[in-house]
Each structure stands twice: as C-alpha cells, then as structure tokens.
C-alpha cells in the first residue's frame, strides 16, 4: 500500500453538493494527487476506484483512499457497480469513514442498486447514481425516486459505447433530458453531465453551455485545467444574480404577496427536499439559482428604464446564448492575459441589451492591449461588435439611442427632405415645359 497523504492540502470551503457545478474525478491509484485535487477549484472531488483502476490494483487503490479519508481528507468516492464482486468490499471499507462525503455508484440501472448501497452504508451517506447505459436511462425515474438517491450523473462515455450513439449534441440530447426529467420526478437537484475529453476550452465551453440549456446543473471533469471554465459556464450570470436580488427585495417590500401565477419563481415558492434522509441530515438549502435555469420556470425579466430596453434572447445567439469572457467592469485596465474565466464578468445571456459605447470602448482598449483571446469565436464576435460601435460613434456622435445621435439623424433627414423638395421644384417645371 502506498503512503497516501494524511493531511488535506486546504480547508477551502466548497459549495453544497446539491448545487455543486464541477465534480473532479481523481484516480484512486494516484494518492499523491489527492491533496492537489483538494486544493483545486473543484466544487467537489471524487476519488475513483472504479473505471480509473485496473481490477488487479483495486484493493490497493481502495486502501489508499481509505487512508486519506481517515487522515483528514474529505471527498466523494466512486465505487464499483452493484453487479461486481468489488461493490461489497468497497462499501464495507468506506462505512464510518469521517472524511467520506458520499458515494458515486457506477453503472446504476435500478432503484434497488441505490437503496442497497445506501443501506450498506448504514443510511449515513448519500448515493450519487451514475447512469451509464440505455437501461439506466430508461429506468432513471425509478432510480431518482429510490431511497438514498441524492443526485443523478450521466456516464456519457459508457452510454455511447452501450448504444453506439455519437457524441453529437443532438444524439446526446435525449439521455441528458431524460435525466433532467427524472431528477424533477424524484425531487432531486439537477443532474450532473458527463466529462468532456480533450484540452480544448472552446469545446468544453460549448458542451457545458449545451448541458446548461438542457437543464443539467453540474459536470464531471477529468482535468484541473477544466474547472474554471465549467464553474464559469454553469454559474448564474451577474445579470441573473442582480435580477434575483432585485426580485426578492421587491417581493419582501410588498409583503410577500404574489401578483399572479408567473410572478414567483418556483424555487422561492416551494422548498424542494432531497430524497436522501440521513440520520442527522438537516433540510437541504435552497438553490440560489433563481429563474428558469434553476427550476425550468420562465421567470419574469426586469424592465429597464430609459431609451434602451431589455429584450428576451434574440437571434444574436453567439453572444446571447453563451457567456463571453470579457471584462466590462472596473479594473479592465489591470486585466491579465492569464485571467481565469471564472472570475470575469460576462455579457448577460438571458437578457440582451445593445452594447453601450462605454462597454465598447473598454473592450477595444483590452483588444489593443492584446488581453483578449481573439481565437475564441465568441470573443472575436464581441470585439468586432465593439469596434463597430466605436467607429459609428466617431462618425455620428454618441451611441445608438443617444440624444446626440438622434439629433444628428433628424438634422440629416431634414436636410435630405429639403434637398429633395428643391430638386423637385426645379425639375417639375422643366418637365412640364418639355411636354408642351
């Protein structure tokens, strides 16, 4: 048995597992990497003693995981599926470990798999069901409703091998949506998407955005470098957060009175309870992610004052549907090329306004300083839009909707009408004279 570290590398607080966005899978055969994973940006870490471990090395990997969890480390553990001989040894070794947060049950295909695992753990730890087959997808409502089920996760790689499905977004939409519906039926938090293989952050961002659009609220990952992107894409946008706070303040100010059926987001109106009931479990905290992405409910959009109005998502999908890692706020001049996407403000996705001139000027300044990734198609489109706004402002004055620009427009229009009338006054007599 390897000498696994016994002291965790960090005490950094992590989001509650019900709303955790990034789930980092760490091979159980690499105990030297456990501390690094614990100190990463992952919302939750999962020590893997199933897929990532050769059968001959599973006992040693299990012992390393137990040693680390017994020495102060905290993590979830991905255990072998119920049909294997390793399952029993896994749960018996993990029972009572102080650092065990819960187990991820591989290849879950029935509600009984979840319940039996939960019972073998003495009902003290939640079970995250990893669904990886066609049968598991079709029985996912039963799995989500099983006693002990905490959350569903999608094993996309094994599902594709089981069904022959491609990795195309359309081909994977059904199993993902099935898990979203099953989670709602079982009154569980949103499901966790499978990992994206590869080092392309553009592909990772795209697939994470698709998962969010389908209703998934977390994502498995295999590399620490993927964590900032996943956390950024799945997090509420600044506009979402601002709207939620404004709504709650207004709701409280009017005495918590509901004006109509669509006025109150579902996550405020009812308290969702997890199906997991541990002996000392406290009621799960409500997700702060208000609005349609948290509950599937189309929450009302805020009304803005002035000339520029906010509109629902429009065809400018490249900007409206995905977050663009551009700093529109203060501190833009101090931005660094090595920024992390997680910490950057974004253009709102759920509601879109025209880019204002100050925004455009800040983006252009960042672009001139070489601090934006022009290789990213989304960033490139926003930068192009910013340059266009600045150029038009230089020609016309102000920005779209600005009083100076409107005044210029009306002056030019009036001049055009005057010239047209003057020319007509000259031409009409000449034409009439020719006719005579």
TrEMBL record:
Coiled coil ranges: none
Keywords: Magnesium, Membrane, Metal-binding, Transmembrane, Transmembrane helix
Stretch list, region Disordered: 260-304
Superkingdom of source: Bacteria
Gene3D superfamilies per record: Phosphoenolpyruvate-binding domains
Entry-linked InterPro entries: Aldolase/citrate-lyase_domain (IPR005000), Pyrv/PenolPyrv_kinase-like_dom (IPR015813), Pyrv_kinase-like_dom_sf (IPR040442)
Cofactor(s) required for function per UniProt: Mg(2+)
Domain HpcH/HpaI aldolase/citrate lyase: 21-221
Stretches that traverse the bilayer: 409-432
Protein name: HpcH/HpaI aldolase/citrate lyase domain-containing protein
